């Protein structure tokens, strides 16, 4: 599986970031496992520690298993001024977890993100590939309930 | 071409997609067809309309009426009233827009001239609007040096923040003899509050591609990379589509227009790191490394990607180039000021009536931008300050509202234009709080390569947190200045050199607030 993803790209180091994106996107737990790192290292003929360096540098990657839905709340100044802290408090209560943690049922992971560039609709969060803007505490409650209902 | 009596422009962006714009459009099509209007009224899916209404936003031409937050339930009324009877539906119109006509459809547009007007996913629309004329001219009537001379004459300065003259930068690379040269587009837009590049790419992706082609032709590059943020899903999709169309039309690839010029453009997706907006860090990232900046010199223009000469330019900079080549530098010089010709795209956010983006002449004052392009302050709010340029920007008080917004005028006030983000604060918002948020951002984004930045951003965050809680003293405030100044002088790259700007401007312009909070 991992090997097949690698083979879509030429075995050059500059494809590393794209390969890691693809591996993480198809993983049901949205993370990159130690085994995956070894496979990529072998394919690109680069040391595994280089890959760990890259993985831990960029915020979009995770080396820990994550939930089915990754909530990325924007913490940059424009969203902060529009009350992203209240949204964070609400999310923590609703999910019962802190930033960087995953709910026990594995449905949600809560993270911060840098500016998403949707500041016209601040405060903003992203759940997987979808952007949710103009957030209020009630709206957040609805969104979480809807996703929970979907399972 | 078919003639329609009316055009409905529908903005497709992250917010409208979340509001279900695709279903909305099919419902609107059905309703128009039901009323025999399908042949008379055209629906155009386009990019940003220039204002940020919530949810689904429409602009109707030729009346130029803006609707915001339109829902599927509103469609029958809209079609009956507006499109059959010609009576715009006041209830749905952008709040206050019937009394006040903001200059959404900016008079002087270069970069955004097609945005919100053409279908960004259709190359024919771009060509119909004069697209790829500049490329044809550059390939058939001009030598590469003529292209550089024209850009130099136009005085185009980099729009990513550093304001380095683009033509001069290209000149460094073009004279080098190298087997391979590269053009890299910096679309890793991470400055908080800035999203102009996203909207430029979403609204008119082909214009950026044409700018890249002109740059590549000028410097002799045969390969270009667009380094784009992983979070910009719609942009990525549109650029991929546009690149594919170019290959189909023979505008990219080998021997373009029989001129012997070859070019390939590839998208590279970033993975989330603010520091990758720094050109050498971006190159490191393109090579598959951690995005740590490199020592300069050698500059990328001489030794960049895989040690080959590489021109790195911002999206907005390159988007200006097709106009300069097609219309000539003299036409370009009619815009803006003598020192800083051309226009600038801004994103205006915060407590203004119509947050959004606008493109205005360089040198337009902050007051004009806020009042004429964003509809002034929101009802019931008073202006307190504006954060200009993002986190690596400055906080300006009301007495500086009439400063001309261009690179050189702002310099006199130790202020920067940066990437063009304007965040407006009302009188109830705290500057200390804003500064805390900015410093939290820098602490998170420092790449950790050099000590001044790694330790400095941490210390600054601790100090501002202490002050914010009311436990700080004026000594702490002065210590912050001291640390940030040291960082400015000793940090490896622009990231560590930047916090001083926000800190100094906050403390100098709003001293009272710091005195007040440290008194407790």
What does this entry look like structurally?
- The complex is a heterodimer of chains A (151) and B (520).
- Chain A is of the alpha+beta class and 151 residues long.
- Chain A has helices at residues 2-7, 16-26, 34-44, 48-57, 77-81, 84-95, 137-150, and strands spanning 69-74, 108-113, 125-127, 130-132.
- A four-stranded mixed β-sheet of chain A has the order 2-1-3-4, with helices on one face.
- In chain A, helix 6 (84-95) packs parallel to helix 7.
- The radius of gyration of chain A is 17 Å and the shape is elongated.
- In chain A, 42% of the residues are buried.
- The model of chain A has no long low-confidence stretch (mean pLDDT 93).
- The model of chain B is unreliable at 98-102 (pLDDT under 50).
- The longest helix of chain B is centred in the C-terminal third of the chain and has 18 residues, at 451-468.
- The radius of gyration of chain B is 24 Å and the shape is globular.
- Chain B contains 21 helices and 14 strands.
- Chain B starts with 5 loop residues before the first strand and ends with a helix.
- Classes of the chains: A alpha+beta (151), B alpha/beta (520).
- At the A-B interface, helix 2, helix 4, helix 5 and strand 4 of A face helix 1, strand 10 and helix 16 of B.
Question: Which characteristics define this entry?
Answer:
heterodimer; A: 151 residues; alpha+beta; four-stranded mixed sheet; 7 helices; 4 strands; B: 520 residues; alpha/beta; five-stranded mixed sheet; 14 strands; 41% helix
